UniProtKB/TrEMBL annotation:
<dbReference type="GO" id="GO:0005829">
    <property type="term" value="C:cytosol"/>
</dbReference>
<protein>
    <submittedName>
        <fullName>D-glycerate dehydrogenase</fullName>
    </submittedName>
</protein>
<dbReference type="InterPro" id="IPR006139">
    <property type="entry name" value="D-isomer_2_OHA_DH_cat_dom"/>
</dbReference>
<dbReference type="GO" id="GO:0030267">
    <property type="term" value="F:glyoxylate reductase (NADPH) activity"/>
</dbReference>
<feature type="domain" description="D-isomer specific 2-hydroxyacid dehydrogenase catalytic">
    <location>
        <begin position="3"/>
        <end position="318"/>
    </location>
</feature>
<dbReference type="InterPro" id="IPR050223">
    <property type="entry name" value="D-isomer_2-hydroxyacid_DH"/>
</dbReference>
<dbReference type="Pfam" id="PF02826">
    <property type="entry name" value="2-Hacid_dh_C"/>
</dbReference>
<dbReference type="GO" id="GO:0016618">
    <property type="term" value="F:hydroxypyruvate reductase [NAD(P)H] activity"/>
</dbReference>
<dbReference type="InterPro" id="IPR029752">
    <property type="entry name" value="D-isomer_DH_CS1"/>
</dbReference>
<comment type="similarity">
    <text>Belongs to the D-isomer specific 2-hydroxyacid dehydrogenase family.</text>
</comment>
<dbReference type="InterPro" id="IPR006140">
    <property type="entry name" value="D-isomer_DH_NAD-bd"/>
</dbReference>
<feature type="domain" description="D-isomer specific 2-hydroxyacid dehydrogenase NAD-binding">
    <location>
        <begin position="109"/>
        <end position="286"/>
    </location>
</feature>
<dbReference type="Pfam" id="PF00389">
    <property type="entry name" value="2-Hacid_dh"/>
</dbReference>
<dbReference type="GO" id="GO:0051287">
    <property type="term" value="F:NAD binding"/>
</dbReference>
<dbReference type="InterPro" id="IPR036291">
    <property type="entry name" value="NAD(P)-bd_dom_sf"/>
</dbReference>
<keyword id="KW-0560">Oxidoreductase</keyword>
Length: 319
């Protein structure tokens, strides 16, 4: 049986598989496998080890006659045509759980860095513009006892709330369903999105990407936020209307934004958002610590091996 790896991953993870399977591995770590090449390799593949940057669409699924398992090294699977995969009886696996803490860490890092203008501070020094201590030089927003509003209170949202508790923050949340455990453990208060947007000093978006969440934060939502609000998105870029975000930041309707995800990735370096002083942008590195990425890759391989052995995947999306 053949497994296609769309990225180069550490040899120690792949080597043991070679005894049992025929392995094709794209030889670049940080460059995607071209779609046409992927189509070609998938013609006789039984499983594919993929990631958020690959387009696993209907055409690719239809042209992979022996495909049994699609395993993504991610919790999100919006790059995979689930309908086409499920119709063909292909099991789709993902890697929830192991990336919760790393992604919550990065989300909170962005929140602190954006509110206290950390990157702007470094830029001032780099440009040799630091003349003296200034009473209001690079003043940001307070974190201690501020109100954080978390949209999407899944595992990662609750991880962020736990970190916010350490800063004595008031925690509001909105989610498809109430989370009694977060309310009891963290004192998180459930409210409507509108109420959350109006009351929060920090709005953190952690909703999955679905047709319902597309552009869920747009002009109307930015209008509701405080002028001092900091907006953080570590979920998916498609959840936010980037043009509306640009306007809100440019016209100082909100204070700043910290973004790890974009509508189109990689974001082009001439994107208007990147011209603004009050934006911190990162290249989708929410779960990027070595330990977590090794766990994600290991779990994605486990999903493939289970699927090829005819067993239930450890984490299956289309049960
Ligand atoms: C995910 O897991 O969905 C992230 O966006 C990639 O780490």
């Amino acid at each position: 049986m053949k497994i296609v790896f769309t990225r180069k991953i550490p040899t120690e993870l792949v080597e043991p598989l070679k005894e049992k399977y025929d392995i094709f591995m794209w030889d670049r770590e940080n460059e995607p496998m071209p779609y046409e090449r992927l189509l070609q390799e998938m013609k006789d593949a039984d499983a594919v080890f993929t990631n958020v940057a690959d387009r696993i669409d209907k055409q690719l699924i239809e042209q992979s006659p022996s495909l049994k398992v699609i395993s993504t090294m991610a919790v999100g699977y919006d790059n995979i045509d689930m309908e086409a995969a499920t119709a063909r009886g292909i099991a789709v696996g993902h890697t929830p759980g192991v990336l919760t803490e790393a992604t919550a860490d990065l989300t909170f890092t962005l929140l602190v860095a954006t509110s206290r203008r950390i990157v702007e501070g470094m830029d001032v020094i780099r440009r040799n513009e630091w003349q003296s201590w200034g009473p209001f030089l690079l003043t940001g927003q307070s974190l201690y006892k501020a109100t954080i509003g978390i949209i999407g209170m899944g595992r990662i949202g609750q991880g962020v709330a736990r970190r916010a508790k350490g800063f004595d923050m008031n925690i509001l949340y909105h989610n498809r369903s109430r989370k009694p455990e977060a309310e009891a453990e963290l004192g998180a208060v459930y409210c409507s999105i509108e109420e959350l947007l109006r009351q929060s000093d920090y709005v953190v978006l952690l909703a999955p990407s679905t047709p319902e969440t597309k552009n869920m934060i747009s002009h109307e939502q930015f209008e509701m936020m405080k002028k001092t609000a900091v907006f953080i998105n570590t979920s998916r870029g498609t959840n936010v209307d980037e043009e509306a975000l640009y306007q809100a930041l440019k016209e100082e309707k909100i204070f700043a934004a910290g973004l790890d995800v974009f509508e189109t990735e990689p974001i082009s370096n001439d994107h208007p958002l990147l011209t603004l002083h009050n934006v911190i942008a990162l290249p989708h590195i929410g779960s990027a610590n070595v330990e977590t990425r090794m766990k994600m890759a290991t779990l994605a391989i486990e999903n493939i091996e289970k699927g090829l052995a005819g067993e239930r995947l450890t984490h299956i999306v289309n049960d």
